[in-house]
Every structure is written in C-alpha cells, then in structure tokens.
Design brief:
97 residues; 56% helix; mainly alpha
C-alpha cells in the first residue's frame, strides 16, 4: 500500500490574527533571524503577499527577497511589514539569573 503525502503549507492554517501573533512571537523568542524572516514570510503569504507589500511600501519582489531563507530584512522593512500585518512588536526584559 502506497502512502500519499501532500506538502504542508502553514500559511493555509494561519488565517487567525492570534495564531499569526503566536507564530511570530515564537520566532522572535528564538532570536534566529532566519526563522523570524520565515515566520514573517508565512504570515505575509497567509494575508496576501501583494497587498502586504503594497501596504508596507515595497515591491512584491523586494518583499519576497527580504523574507526568503537568505534574506535579511532591514529594520524599516520589518516595521513596515508588521504595521501592514497589524502586528505590534513589543519588548520585555529578560530575567537574568
């Protein structure tokens, strides 16, 4: 018996703003820039790449490049994208023991 598999696309399961925020929060907590860019890319795809790029003041191609696995989004891109996504970045102190 052959098992059929399909490619999992997280963007199809992130329609809820709270789920998007949880996903991005998890990525930010790791401090892994590649994971953060990936998470933002998935959320942007869930919301619509073209519209988010437009709202962030970027071309669609520039947004794809910035959020690609080898991308390195600038601070202005990060702020523009999170604003377009209606996501607020917050800071909190880290407990040092």
């Amino acid at each position: 018996m052959t098992i059929e598999t399909t490619t999992f696309d997280a963007a199809k399961h992130l329609g809820d703003p709270e789920a998007q925020a949880i996903f991005l929060r998890d990525a930010l907590e790791t401090g892994d820039t590649g994971y953060i860019a990936h998470a933002l890319g998935v959320i942007v795809r869930a919301k619509g790449m073209t519209q988010i790029a437009r709202d962030a003041g970027l071309s669609r191609e520039a947004l794809y490049k910035a959020l690609s696995p080898t991308g390195n989004p600038t601070l202005s891109t990060l702020i523009g994208v999170t604003k377009a996504l209606n996501i607020r970045l917050e800071a909190s102190a880290i407990s040092v023991k």
